[in-house]
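Q: My labmate handed me this sequence with no annotations at all. I'd like to see what the chain might look like in three dimensions before we decide whether it's worth expressing. Could you predict it?
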Amino acid sequence: MRFQAAEQTEPAVPSRQTIPQIDPVPRVSIQAFCETPEAAAIVQAAVADRRMSKTHVKQNMGGAAAAVEAYRNAPTPNVIILEATANREALIEQLDELSQFCDAGTKVIVLGKLNDIVLYRQLMARGVSEYLVAPVTPVEFVQAISHLFRAPGAKPLGRVISVIGAKGGVG
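A: Here is what I predict for the chain of 171 residues:
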């Protein structure tokens, strides 16, 4: 009986180098305030990711203005995700208004369309945890949320078992 090797032009499974190592997101509450259906679809796809299985996500439309109205008389969640389609000055103004109602431990991720280093620095100076330039993939989105809760110096999840032998044939 002869076996013939099947020709493959592309690997069936992506290589380990193309799959980023993303830790599971802990049990946190996340509220997203989107302005466009595209951003809402990215959030929905990210929520379906297995690494986000412990999170509680609520999605709203309306952007930063809706977030300000939502938190005037309510506590903020662990993570607020804002989509910003406004220009730099308007975005900074909206975030300054939102900061009046945010609790101290709340992390904020802004999803914007401007690839501007000055804007990025202004956002980081105001305490924004992450700024993502659209378009982003759901995997990049999950990775950004996961990185918010990764403790520096923490041991990786799981365990490694190794067997060592000095005599031939033990491997």
